[in-house]
Each structure stands twice: as structure tokens, then as C-alpha cells.
Amino acid sequence: MAEEVTLKEENNQEKAFSDIDENPGVEEQTIPPGMIPPELEDEESTFQRVEEEPPAPQPQEEKKLFDKKFLILISALGGLALVLLIVLIILIFSKDEQKPTIQNFADDNSSTNITRVKQSALDLVVQKANLLYEKGDIESALELYNNINIFNQSLSSYNLGVAQMKQKDYTSAIENFKQSLDLGEHKVAASINLAVCYYNLGNRAKFNHYIDLAKAYLPQDSKSSLYYYYQGLINYYQGFYPEALQMFSKVDNPSYKDESYYISGKIYSLLQSEKNAINFLQKQEEYNVDLPLGLLYAKIGQYAKAKEHLEKSSKSDLHKQRSQIALALVDLKLGQYANGSEILKALYIKDRDIGTKYYKIKTRLKRNLSNIDIAQQNFAKRLITGKQQIYDLLFYFSPYRVFDVKQSMELITKADLGNFIQGYEYENELLVKSKALSGVNVELSHAINLAFNFHLREANQEFKNISEIYHAHDVIHYNLALTYAQLQDYHNAYRHFSTAYHLNPKNYIAGIFAIFCMDLVKKDYTKLTNELLENLQADPTIDQNHNIYKYLIHLSRNDFTAMIPYLDNLSGKENSPLELMFSIIAANGNNLENLRNEKIKELKDLLKEDIISNILYFNSENTNLDIKEYAKKAQIYFLTTKLDYNSLFGGAGIVKDSYVTLMQITGLLNHVRNDIKKRLSTSNKNSIGLIFALAYVDIFAKEYQEAYTLYNILIDDYKIKDAQTLFLAAVAAIGSNNPNSAIALLELARLENEETLEARLALGLLYHEVQNLEPAMFQYEKVGNNFKSKFFTFDIKH
Hints:
Layout: H1 68-93, H2 112-134, H3 138-148, H4 153-166, H5 170-182, H6 187-200, H7 204-217, H8 227-237, H9 241-249, H10 254-270, H11 274-283, H12 290-299, H13 303-314, H14 320-333, H15 337-350, E1 361-365, H16 372-379, H17 387-396, E2 400-402, H18 405-411, E3 421-423, H19 429-433, H20 435-452, H21 456-469, H22 474-486, H23 490-503, H24 508-520, H25 526-538, H26 548-553, H27 564-568, H28 577-589, H29 593-606, H30 611-622, H31 627-640, H32 646-650, H33 653-666, H34 669-682, H35 687-700, H36 704-716, H37 723-735, H38 739-752, H39 757-769, H40 773-783, E4 792-796
Parallel strand pairs: 2-3
Antiparallel strand pairs: 1-4
């Protein structure tokens, strides 16, 4: 519904209220019947235009015929009508004044008689009718409008038309506006409202006719204080927005200033000038604009103000559902998925069809995955932040374990093997002498050799096979868990780390890593933490002040201050990669930049060709540069430095994540992509790893269809169906606009690993998109609050 023109000033008729999201016009492309709902992320525009239905009129409350208040109201209205009749009779026969008539809507207050009638009686009756309407007693309001008809037929017809427009009874409204027009009263206003009625009935020819008629009548009111207001409305409905804004800016009639501000705000919202829209909506005081203000504030990223206005709007019966759904969407945008689910659930209980009303969403990938500018804004300060990244770095630099180091070193080919292999520390003479144990060590060494040569998935499979045979030894479960953790399958990793720890309570690193993985999959690790601390304190072989284990536990609590004693007591001996990485993380968390950079250099000198060590080193040397200069230096460094790129093709997920993100901000992503394609076409070695790498790079290069095809090859041809592969295939499917395949892949991924929060979120958004709200809410609830997705967001559909 549009702005119906209402009588004010002379007649003091009811004020029109029309949502900011109801903007009909001549052409759908010119005046789309929807406002511009707001964006809800700092990084990008995430709410798009939405076609919103106008709010339905409030249901009339059931009348109680014998209620005392009702009887009093009827008596009061009857008395008021009698007073009005007496006043009018006196005025009719007064020999000092002319017969009063309601002047043309556009006329100024030139008649003292009209003023006197308005102030004495007529205005009171009209106000009473308006009040009844606003309270939802539409039947009584219409009845009172009909009573007014005995005094002024034109005025009553006009108001009946306005009331019928509010009820969307456009056919009846047309008859009343035509009657008002035939009587020669309120020509411009009646013509505009007739045009609006016909627009809503889909009759564009009649719409154009009555807008043209309004323009034809307008010169007759050129001296009226409402001339610019009328001209602004006509321009607005014809889609001439700049001209309309110019006319509204000239309106100086105090009674129509608020309308002018209000419609100007609507126009600015259509022009996607949110700040101007907010400014004009705040200038006016006549209309309740909490809903549009909430949406507009959200669009510009001012979420606190958005929620403030939406919460106010949700307390109004007129906009309750719409405002609550908008609040739920704001929560979803802010990563408060459990809160959003709670709001949606309350609405769903009352109305099972709520998912099909108002706002419909479209799941998509975040733009920072493929937008260099956004990626640059977020990159430089993110290298050692966030629990997943911190934990991944520790998993990456952790050693594998074997029973016999000397035997394993003979079997494993790796230059820096001593840094990444650790002998079994809790030897049992019977096991050591066992020939069977020597055979197990050979199998372990072979699997570790695969991992060291960046065939991590194959290594993971061999460890699984070994664990099925020798399922009662902590070393085997620990190694299997470490491959899972490096592949970023934290659910399976925590299960095997936990098993390793409980098989051997002195395998402290297994217990700590179990806690880290449980933290990532949002499982309660309180009991395990307490148990681990008790075992550490009771172990006489552990230095209670300087062991790394008790300080590692503080990471799960983000308590970096508690790690300072560890940093204060760093020994001068050569540290392992794991110890160096923990020192880097602890120093970074305590803003000890010099110590952090010193340890990063030690790590890089120890592992000269390692990609992660070099990324950390480059960042430590250049982190204070402007991002554009940073990107230029990164291009030079990584094009000229010798690195072992095999880790990118089949190694840990942290390598792929860190390197691809860096190449994205340097603009070298297509260079990397072409290099992988070249390797894939000329080498038969590690082709699976190359396919994985190319598919992953394709996602960030916006080559979604190729990525989707490659992941399908891995799933169908190579039978690789782990949760991570299925999930990334779903990411590519969403990017290539194939939501049905994405849902199927995500359901399979969830079956493989139901704790994957990214997969749960994507499922929730996709189910929400197809208006299947019940499973969507279930997934949102499981994701919980304060989850920040790397991949997914949503838009509001047209």
C-alpha cells in the first residue's frame, strides 16, 4: 500500500501510516514494491532488496455488546453526533456567516467558518473515528465515517476510501474516491489515491490516467501551501525520485513536513542511500519508523542500533512478526545462531508458515573468499589468531611417535626427521623385546613416511588399518589422531587422542590435543582437563614449574597471561618445532613482538623450505607495512624463495589455508592455479593431492564449476568420501548455484562427521532458503552462538 493522501490542516483527517517497505510505482524496475533491507556484515553487503508484503490489518477484537465501556462509548459518540448536528443547524441559519463548506484539500486556512467548525465539533468526530481505526475497531470507525456523511458527503467518501485502502479493499475505495472527485472536492488527493488503488489492482493504464489527472488538477492549487507536497507525490509515483526529493524539500506547511521527511526517507532507501534515509526518517515525528530504521542501521553495519529499533518495533502488534524475523536474521548475521533459532522457534510454534513470510534468504559464499580488497583488509593481522588457527599450527609442528627411533630413521626418508619423530618414552621390557612390536614399528614407520612425503590421506588410511589390528596401544591411536587433526577432521581426531591418553595417562600431549579438538567441536572438556592436571601434578618425573604441558592447557581458556612464566624460563637449548611454535603463540598472545619474531626466525632457520615457517617469517618482518606494499613484497618473496610446495598438494590443511590466502592477497592466485595444472598434466605422482589443491584454489579463484567437477572426481572415481572432501564439494556446489547437490553432500558429510559446524551451518542456511524451517532451526541450534563461518553467509531474496 502506498501513501494515501489524507486531509489535514483544514479537515484534520487521520494521518496515513505506510511502511517504508511499501513503495509501488509506475514501473517495477523504477519503483520496486520493496524497501532495501540492510547489510549485516562489515566485510560486505549481505542483505539485498526484498519484496515485502505490506502488513495485514490487525484483527478486530471480538465485541462484547453488554460491556460497560462499550455502552459508554456508544453514548459518547451519540452525544457527540447530536452536538455536531446542533452546531451545524445553528451555523446553517446564522445570518452573520455563510453556509460552511469544506474547502478544497489544497486550500489554505482562509475560512474562519471552517476553522470554527473544525475546532468545535467536526474535528472531534473525525479524530474519534481515526482513533477507533488505529485501535483496530475498524467496523466502528467505518460506522462513524458513515455518520459523518450526513454533514459532508465528500469528506466522508474520501475518508471511507482511505479506510478501505488500509484494508486493501481497493475496489470499494475506488468508488468512494470517484464520488469525492465527482463532487469536485479534493481533486488532486482523490486522483492520486485512485491511481494508487489501480496500481495495486494491476491496472497500469488507469494508474497512469489518474496520475495524469492529478497533474492536470495541480495548477489549480498553485498558490496552495500543499502545492509542492502534491507535486512531490506525483513525481514519486512516476518514479522521478530526484525531482520528488526537490519538491518535498520545498514543503513549508508544518502539518506536512513530517510526511515530506518520511517519503524522502523512503526514496533515499530506494536509491540505496541508507544514511540519508535514516536522517530523514529521524527528522519526522509523526510515524513509527522503528522497523525501517532497524533494517537501515543493520544495512550500514550499526548492529546495536539496528537491534534497538527492531526490538522496539517487535513490541508493536502492527509489525511484531516482521520485526522478530528481522531480529532473528540479524542474530544469524552476527553468528548468534542459537539466539536466532530461539526467535524463529517461538514464531514457528504460533505459525507453521512463518518461513514463507516476509524475508526469504539465499545462501551464498562470502565475498572475501574471492575479493582481493576484502581479503587484504583481513589478512595481515590474522596469522596467529583464533583457536582453530592456533591449534592447527601446533598440530602441524607436532612429532609422530614410534617404538624404535633408530629403526624408524632407517625406514623414513626426511632431511629433518629428528624434528618430527619421537621415540616411545614409556618402554615396557616385554614389549621392547617383542618381535611383534618390531613389526608394528615397521608399519608405523611406513605410514609416517607417507605423511612426511605429503601423502597425508594415504598415511591416515594406513594408521586406521594398523589401529584395527593393534587397537590397544596409545602410540598408534596418537599417530592416527594427529593425521586427522592435520586434515582438520577434529571430531575423529579428538576420539583417537582421547583413546591414546586413556590407554596411557602419561601420554600428556595426546590428552592436551584431545582437549583442543573437543574445544573446536564444542564438546565439554572440563572432566578431561581436571583429570589431566591431576595426573601431571602427581607425576614425579615432570618438572612442575617448567613443563610445556600445563602451559599448553591454558590455550583452551585463552589465558595467555598464565603462559608468561614459561616464556621467562625458556632454556638456551635447541627447541623442537612444537616448542618453538608454542613460544611464538604465547609471545604473540602477550604482545611480546621481539620475542615472537626471534622465535619465528629460529623456526624458519630450522625448517628452511617449510611454507608455514616462511609465511610466519615474512609476516613478522613486514606486518607493519601498508597492505598494498605488504602484498608487493610478498609477491617478490614467494616468487624468489625456494620452498617445498609438495606440502601444499598433500600435506596438512593449515598449509593450504595459509598459502592460498596469502596468494589471494598478493594477486598470485591464478599463477598458483596454472602451476598446479601444469604439474597435474606432466606428473603421475601425487595426482590426488594435486587435484585436491587445484579444487581448493578454484574455490578462491571463483572457478566454482571446475572445483565442483574436481571434487566429484575425487568422490566418485577415487572413492574419497571423508567429511572434509564432501564439505568442500558442497562449498563448490553452492558457489556454482547447485543448492540441491550441496544439501545432499552436506548430509553425507554430517553422517561422516556430525560435529562439523561449517557443514551444520550450511545445511541450516540451505534448509532456511527452501523454507523448511524446522530442520534449519535444528542446525542453527547445534551450531550455537559466537560461530564465525569462513565460507557462508546469505542474502535476502528479491
